[in-house]
């Protein structure tokens, strides 16, 4: 009985006053070479595939606007075009410092039943290669610049052109790109580099030496820091890739950091509230703060994203030119949500809404992986009116930001099997934890009561024996 009490009191102490149970559960997600969790991370089951939803801005009156007939540029948000995205890890290498290096390989399947338009529908769109060349051409040698200007003029390249959605997103052969003005390619497509094996490599912490470092990026393309921004703080890459987070941060509700390759910078996620999703599964909701793309006047933390320019951009966009090989790409939230209205003052059809355009994630409270949510970003291009573009877009102001597409990445359909797995990882493990906690407490009480009862009975028996012995002594002559 004493042994039972010692075991139960030890179990009680472990379950009530240590993190042993939680640490044991979290040990299952640590990335170890050839472990089951690592195999699932490298090549996840297709039932967990995410959805990539693309909205394209169609310019419906751009000729009339440029000719001075219409007062504003009319754009229609067309979409989504929905694709199933399957991601695997390739070139995986486990390192001695408890990190793993890898590249993402993505494949896409168009889902017409989940789309509001077809891949081969036509759209009137900004001529991204031409607008990019207008910026890059000022930095190339004189001979190459002369040749490029003549070819562009000879081909009568227009500032806006008609393309199918498939061409614009996944690539088409372009004459300007083929001139190799700093691109090294012959084709252009906004998402072309996303399809297939990524050119970028990531190195993350496996969590094997310290679970608090789990999933934190340690290197991007072999470097611990970027060289895009103006100080070390903004060049740091030590966030997550958004597929998983350090679990301990959820306990304190501190900000989560996500490193977005599309921005070449980290983005914070603020804890908003506890939520229940998918038939009462608990989750923690995190959102991007509204001042992520604010000007330094509104958010001093963003001062290092100004590229040492005298005048920083208005709130709502970020200059990611260095991240895109010199192309003037200026990402934002969809429809310039939370941005300064003067960014889109010349546009009709821009309607920012929090419910549709802000990023959020519902994260598993124990294992720190996103259960559901929506990652949303918009790709825009800025107009630089150089010699090859000035007369083509005379009415556009220098620096006008033209919206191209916005994308939304969400979880796929939740099958019964997925929901069952989430139930087990939530309610099942919680039930086991509570059973062990209160089971050891009950065992302590029962074993202690039995020990006390046994001691009492032993004392009573000894007492009775003593009384009986005393009586026998008195009866003797």
Automatic annotation (TrEMBL):
Keywords: Cell membrane, Glycoprotein, Membrane, Receptor, Transmembrane, Transmembrane helix. The chain crosses the membrane at residues 438-458. GO terms for cellular component: cytoplasm; plasma membrane. InterPro entries: CD36_fam. It is found in: Cell membrane. One of its GO terms (molecular function) is scavenger receptor activity. Pfam families: CD36. Belongs to the CD36 family. This is Scavenger receptor class B member 1. It comes from Zeugodacus cucurbitae.
């Amino acid at each position: 009985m004493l042994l039972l009490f010692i075991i139960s009191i030890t179990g009680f102490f472990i379950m009530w006053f240590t993190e042993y149970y939680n640490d044991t559960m979290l040990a299952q997600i640590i990335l170890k070479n050839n472990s089951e969790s690592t195999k699932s991370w490298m090549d996840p089951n297709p039932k967990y595939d995410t959805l990539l939803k693309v909205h394209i801005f169609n310019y419906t009156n751009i000729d009339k606007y440029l000719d001075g007939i219409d007062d504003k540029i009319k754009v229609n948000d067309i979409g989504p075009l929905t694709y199933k995205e399957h991601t695997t890890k390739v070139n995986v290498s486990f390192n001695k410092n408890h990190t793993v290096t890898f590249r993402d390989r993505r494949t896409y399947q168009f889902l017409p039943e989940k789309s509001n338009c077809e891949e081969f529908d036509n759209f009137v769109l900004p001529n991204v290669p031409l607008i990019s060349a207008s910026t890059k051409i000022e930095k190339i040698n004189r001979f190459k610049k002369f040749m490029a200007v003549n070819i562009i003029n000879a081909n009568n390249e227009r500032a806006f052109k008609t393309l199918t959605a498939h061409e614009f997103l996944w690539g088409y052969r372009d004459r300007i790109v083929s001139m190799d003005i700093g691109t090294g390619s012959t084709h252009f497509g906004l998402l072309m580099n996303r399809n297939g094996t990524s050119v970028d490599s990531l190195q993350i912490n496996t969590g094997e030496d310290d679970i608090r470092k789990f999933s934190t990026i340690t290197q991007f393309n072999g470097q611990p820091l970027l060289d895009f921004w103006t100080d070390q703080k903004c060049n740091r890459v030590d966030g997550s890739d958004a597929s998983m987070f350090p679990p301990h941060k959820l306990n304190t509700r501190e900000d989560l950091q996500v490193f977005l390759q599309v921005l070449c910078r980290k983005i914070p996620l603020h804890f908003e509230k506890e939520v229940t999703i998918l038939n009462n599964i608990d989750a923690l909701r995190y959102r991007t703060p509204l001042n992520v793309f604010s000007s330094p006047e509104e958010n001093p933390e963003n001062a290092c994203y100004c590229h040492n320019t005298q005048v920083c951009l208005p709130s709502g966009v970020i200059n990611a030119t260095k991240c895109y090989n010199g192309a003037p790409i200026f990402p934002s939230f969809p429809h310039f949500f939370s941005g300064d209205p003067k960014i889109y003052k010349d546009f009709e059809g821009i309607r920012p809404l929090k419910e549709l355009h802000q990023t959020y994630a519902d994260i598993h409270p124990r294992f720190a992986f996103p259960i559901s949510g929506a990652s949303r970003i918009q790709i825009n291009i800025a107009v630089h009116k150089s010699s090859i573009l000035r007369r083509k877009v005379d009415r556009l102001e220098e620096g006008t930001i033209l919206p191209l597409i916005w994308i939304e990445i969400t979880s796929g359909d939740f099958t019964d099997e997925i929901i069952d797995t989430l139930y087990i990882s939530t309610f099942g493990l919680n039930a086991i934890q509570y059973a062990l906690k209160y089971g050891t407490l009950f065992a302590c009480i029962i074993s202690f009561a039995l020990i006390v009862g046994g001691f009492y009975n032993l004392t009573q028996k000894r007492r009775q024996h003593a009384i009986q012995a005393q009586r026998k002594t008195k009866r003797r002559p």
